Amino acid sequence: MILVFAILTVGCKESITNNMAFKQVDFVKKFPKSVTLKERTFVDIDVIGIRNFAIHDSLLIFSTIDDDGLWSFVSLNDYSILGNFLTIGEGPFQFLQPPSIATKGTLHTYDSLYAYIYDSQRGRLLKMNIDKSINDKALSISIVTDSIPPFLFNSVVIDSSQYLFKEASPDLTQQLRYLYHRNEKKTSEVLNVLNSAKIEMNEDINILSTITKAHNKNGKIVEMPIGLNHLNIYSLDGIFKKTVSVESKLNDINKIQQKSLGDRLYTFADLRLFDNYFGTLHINEKESIYQTNREKKPRILFFDYDGKPLIEINLEHHITSFDFDLNRGEMYTFDVHSDELYKYDIRQILQELR
C-alpha cells in the first residue's frame, strides 16, 4: 500500500444554470490523502450470477440473477452460504425482475435485521426479516405498501412510514423528488432546487439519474449522479445543503445533451454510506470506451457528511461495486464484467477515516 500526501484545495462558488446542484459548491481539486491498493486476495464463493453486493456486520449479501435465489446470504466468517431467498415469478412475494441490494434494498436494524425492498415493476415496498429468514430457513417477508408508483428512479426509506421517491415528470424531461407519507406526496424547497434540472424532449432522462441514500442517524441525504461530476448532500429540512464537485467546473446538462451518447461521461457507479463518512466509486470514462475497453482505472472517494474530502483509494483493476467489512478491516470489491470478487486489507485506511 502506497501513501501519498497531497495538499487539499477546496473553493466555493455559485452554481451555474441547469446542473442539478445547490448554490454552495465546493470544488475538490485534491484529496488530503491518496492511497494506491495493490495487494488483493481473490475470494471464491459458490454463488451464481452475482450482480452486486452489500455487507452488514458479518453478513455478505449478494444480488444475483439466479431465479431460485435472487439474494444469497453468506457468512463472512467462513464464506458458508446461510440461505438463498427471493424468486422470480407471479406470486405475491415474488419478483418480475431481480431487485438490487445496492440500489433497491435498504437495510435497517430494529429487533432484527430487515431489508426494505422496492419492487419497481409492481409499485410496492416489501419488508424482509433477514435474521428470521436465515434462522428458520424460510422466507419471512411482508408488504409494507402496494400503492406507490412503479418504475421510480429512487426509493429511499427515511423511516418506517416516510420515504423519499424520485419519478419522471409526465413529459419525461425531469426527475421529481418528493416525500411520501401515508399515501401523500410532499415536496420542499431543498428538493425543488434539484427538481428544477431539466433535459430536452426525447433526450436520455438518465442524464438526471442518481443513486440516492439516506443516513439512518444523521438524517443526511447523499445523491450521486451517474453522469455528472458532482455529489449533492442535504438534509430534508433544508438546513444543510451542499454540492461537492470533483472537478474545477460543474457539468452543464445543456452541453451534455449536445454530445453523442458515446461521448458522454459515465462518472460514478456505486455509493456506500458509513457512520461518519461515505464513499463513491468514481469511473469518469466515456460511455463508448467503458462499454468496450475500460481504459481508466477507478478510484473510491471518501467524504464526511459535511462534504469535506477525506481520502481517495486508487485501484489497479476494474470494479463495479465495493463495501467494507469493518469488523475485520477489509474492503471487498466486485466486477460484474469479469465476475471477480476480491478483498483488501484496509486497516490502516480505516484508522485514517476514523
Characterize this entry briefly.
With 354 residues, the chain is mostly beta strands. It has five helices and 28 strands. Helix content is 9%, strand content 45%.
Describe, in plain words, how this protein is organized in 3D:
This protein is 9% helix and 45% strand. With 354 residues, the protein is mostly beta strands. The strands form six sheets. Strands 1-4-25-24-23-22 form a six-stranded mixed beta sheet. A six-stranded mixed beta sheet has the order 2-3-21-20-19-18, with no helix packed on it. A hairpin with a 5-residue loop joins strand 24 (299-303) and strand 25 (309-315). The longest helix is centred in the middle third of the chain and has 7 residues, at 130-136. The relative contact order is 0.14.
Alpha carbon gap, first and last residue: 18 Å
What form results from the Cα inertia axes? globular
Q: What characterizes the major β-sheet? A: 6 strands, mixed
| CA gyration radius, whole angstroms | 20 Å
- Strand coverage percent: over 45%
Spatial sequence of strands, sheet with the most strands: 1-4-25-24-23-22
Unreliable runs, pLDDT <50, ≥5 residues?
1-16
Question: How many strand units?
Answer: 28
**Kindly state the mean pLDDT as a whole number?**
93
Number of H- or I-type helical stretches: 5
Report the structural category: mainly beta
Helix content: under 10%
